[in-house]
Write a structure and sequence with these properties.
Length: 258
């Protein structure tokens, strides 16, 4: 039996799928779900395998498995084409969807993500992190990531955002963390897939993001034939949480270009 992802499905109109970051879940997008539904769109936001209310996949770790599960959600709802937006790991999944079924995607939002594959050292680090969380639990290893997940402004001035991210970290199951890290370690470069995507695209990022720096954003924007770049000042990697209204606005702008 194939895994069914837990999902928020709100609003009506043209559909957009929102794919969350590691180690969060679909509630990372709560503000955008509300804003996009109010703007006249149907918003479909799944918990990716192992996060939130979705079970861990029994398949070998691979983002292609995740992309297929998201297409299953779209097929179940008999939706032809959809817009897809993903933040960081969610962006990697969006690019995998583009590789699998490009004709199903009518707009692409890449938020604080990157199209390049991991260099060897980063890949080794992910595999070590996966082994460490399986042996000793998620929280300690992931709390070390906090300075990178949030921008310095948020860490200093937005305590509720720090609290929300701490909760995501504490709730992330070790098996999900390990599966996702191994799957991300195996992902290929996606720049050639972006270069073939002629529909409206968005490259949005927090200016204080140190995990997916501006050079990565420039290379995605350079590859996309119809890419609009939206730098968001005063926020870091988890921009959807750090600047919810700004991220909603750039997504609504993307949908308006379809
Ligand atoms: C994320 O926010 O999804 C992660 O930072 C992605 C990654 O580890 O590359």
């Amino acid at each position: 039996m194939t895994l069914e992802l837990a999902v928020t499905d709100e609003g009506s109109g043209d559909a957009i799928v929102l794919l969350h970051a590691f180690p969060c879940n679909r509630h990372m997008w709560d503000a955008q779900i509300e804003a996009l539904a109010a703007a006249g769109y149907r918003v479909i936001a799944p918990d990716l395998p192992g996060f939130g209310d979705s079970a861990v996949s029994a398949a070998a770790p691979d983002l292609a498995v995740v992309a297929q599960l998201v297409f299953d959600l779209i097929d179940d709802r008999a939706l032809g084409q959809v817009a897809v937006a993903g933040l960081s790991m969610g962006g990697y999944v969006a690019m995998e969807m583009l590789r699998q079924q490009p004709g199903r995607i009518n707009a692409l939002g890449l938020v604080d993500t990157k199209a390049t594959a991991d260099p060897d050292e980063a890949r080794q680090g992910r595999l070590q992190l996966a082994d460490a969380v399986v042996a000793a639990g998620s929280s300690a290893a992931l709390l070390d990531m906090m300075p990178k997940l949030l921008g310095e402004t948020s860490r200093a001035e937005r305590p509720p955002v720090v609290e929300a991210v701490t909760t995501f970290i504490n709730e992330a199951h070790p098996e999900a963390v390990a599966w996702a890290q191994r799957a991300m370690a195996a992902r290929p470069d996606s720049l050639a897939d972006l270069a073939r995507f002629a529909e409206p695209a968005l490259v949005a990022y927090g200016v204080e993001d140190v995990l997916t720096p501006v050079a990565e954003q420039d290379s995605m924007a350079g590859a996309l034939p119809d890419g609009v770049v939206a730098p968001i000042p005063g926020v870091g990697h988890l921009s959807a949480l750090e600047a919810p209204a700004e991220v909603s606005a750039v997504l609504i702008d993307l949908l308006g270009r379809i």
